[in-house]
Amino acid sequence: MSDDNRKWKDILESKYIVVPGNSNVWLNCQSWWWRDLVNICREGEGEGWFQKALVWKVRSGDSIRFWEHPWIDNNNLKGLYPRLFSLSLNQGMPVGETGFLDDYGWQWNLKWRRERFQWEAVLEEELLSILFREVLYKDSKDHITWRGDSKGIFFCKISIYSFGQSRYRTK
Hints:
171 residues, single chain
């Protein structure tokens, strides 16, 4: 999912993605395999088992959405700060568009629909203290890793049955 230079990704995108960068395809025109894959990825509107098994690593902030993707300690900010999310004008924006780089480093520029109440301002301060621990790298791409493995790699076991015996091979 992270390596844009893989041939298999080019083949799948050319066959199934109608508009590059947009995964919304007409499922009734696609193969059963592709429909199942899309349903797994969208299970529970992005909060299914597959999405929960992924870890988002922010580098440039170009493809990871600030509020919606789980990039802070494997949590999404929308879930951690629902009140601030409801007030935010940065909904749906990538991390890299919620701030700017200046001579002092990365500066967060969160925008709100209205002034926050005092208790909401406390939440904002808490959020900013978490955000200031994060570092963006303009020369590196965001990527996704698998949560279940310490190296972030997905493995599965394939069971091969022959003559009543079971042999397992890991791929």
